[in-house]
Design goal:
This protein is of the alpha+beta class and about 150 residues long. It is about 25% helix and about 15% strand. The structure holds adenosine monophosphate and zinc ion.
């Protein structure tokens, strides 16, 4: 896995070859404003190393991404921007809505009545039985790597 992708727009931001409004940075991550914000202050946190999907992310990067997202979330609340609450959002894969294939966590300021939300499918609503949950949990437990 290369540490940088010459054609990746987010790698270009890390290398300062593409413009970005950077709001925070540390040794492992960069946080910059989303160019098409869902709300003013909508920020993306990325690892400096190129990783297409979560599975490609080195163990040394996952913690720092959340740490930077927390710092940005905290800053948003104190920034004077409208931010009464925050959503963290990460699309891992095309069918989850991923459009830029360099791992990124969205930090989205939220406030009452902002109209944002996650759409649910038509089957949503019924509380699962414990048996149903255990059948699903068994599959995941069997696949969780140590
Ligand atoms: P996702 O759908 O989770 O892959 O989100 C990709 C996000 O990247 C979108 O919200 C885009 O608006 C944002 N984006 C794409 N290109 C840029 C860029 N050059 N600078 C900042 N944000 C970008
Ligand atoms: Zn990249």
């Amino acid at each position: 896995m290369p540490s940088t992708d010459p054609n990746c727009i987010f790698c270009k931001i890390v290398r300062r070859e593409a413009p970005a409004s950077i709001v925070a940075e540390d040794a492992v991550t960069v946080a910059f404003l989303d160019i098409r914000p869902m709300a003013p202050g909508h920020t993306l946190v990325i690892p400096k190393l190129h990783a297409t999907y979560l599975e490609d992310l080195p163990d040394s990067s996952d913690g720092p991404i959340l740490k930077t997202a927390r710092r940005v979330a905290s800053a948003l609340r104190r920034s004077g921007l409208r931010c009464d609450a925050v959503n963290l959002w990460l699309a891992d894969g095309k069918d989850a809505g991923q459009q830029v294939f360099h791992v990124h966590m969205h930090v989205i300021p939220r406030f009452h009545g902002d109209g944002l939300g996650i759409r649910v499918g038509p089957d949503y609503g019924r509380t699962s039985t414990r048996e149903e949950l255990e059948a699903v949990a068994a599959k995941i437990r069997g696949a969780v790597s140590q």
